[in-house]
Design a protein that fits this description.
Number of helices: 5
Distance between the termini: 26 Å
Structural class: alpha+beta
Strand order of the largest sheet: 3-4-5-6-7-9-8
Number of strands: 9
Shape: globular
Helix content: 25-40%
């Protein structure tokens, strides 16, 4: 099945139209008061996402402290935006976005996480809004790093029109080497 093209309308970028969601939710910018909930959510997401990529005993010992300082710094950083998905009073996801520091005119989704078990349509909505925000700022490309062997996430990004660039890098995560692959979205000329 081919990826559905993104459409830009009053509601922003959309991958699928006319979907009603039963969960009452809002997308908003994060505040300092959200930091503890964001740290917990990120820790849960890492444990879920890296399962099978990082030894389970290391995931059990995952220390959320580095996320606390990273998220606090990010909330205060100029040019960065943290969008949160608040569903029925509980943070279900977030996306950190801004200008790609290495590529002029290119936006970047630096980090994103969703609570394991969250409605994937809500994840779609959060991600669409993150992309729309970058496109509305005049960025015609959006960059994201993806776990090389996490084909579920790679497929997710491909459904939004991202394509691999053939560039990879290795990072250390909880004492294990993790391979990342670069994905890029190019806005169609008539999108904006």
């Amino acid at each position: 099945q081919a990826a559905q093209p993104l459409q830009c309308g009053a509601g922003g970028v959309r991958r699928s139209a006319g979907v009603s969601m039963a969960v009452k939710h809002e997308l908003r910018r994060a505040t300092a008061a959200d930091c503890d909930a964001l740290v917990t959510l990120k820790s849960e997401y890492i444990r879920s996402l890296y399962r099978g990529f990082v030894p389970q005993n290391r995931l059990k010992e995952l220390d959320p402290t580095p996320y606390q300082s990273l998220l606090t710094t990010t909330l205060e950083a100029p040019g960065r935006q943290v969008l949160v998905l608040d569903a029925e009073g509980t943070l279900q996801g977030f996306a950190i976005l801004g200008a790609d520091p290495e590529n002029a005119g290119c936006g970047m989704i630096f980090d994103a996480a969703i609570r394991p078990g969250c409605d994937l349509l809500l994840w779609d909505e959060l991600f669409c809004q993150a992309m729309a925000s970058l496109l509305e700022q005049g960025m015609d490309r959006i960059h994201v790093w993806v776990l090389r062997d996490n084909f579920r996430m790679r497929f997710f990004y491909e459904q939004f029109g991202f394509r691999t660039e053939g560039v990879s890098r290795t990072i250390q995560q909880e004492g294990s080497e993790i391979q990342l692959t670069s994905y890029l979205y190019r806005a169609p000329d008539k999108l904006l």
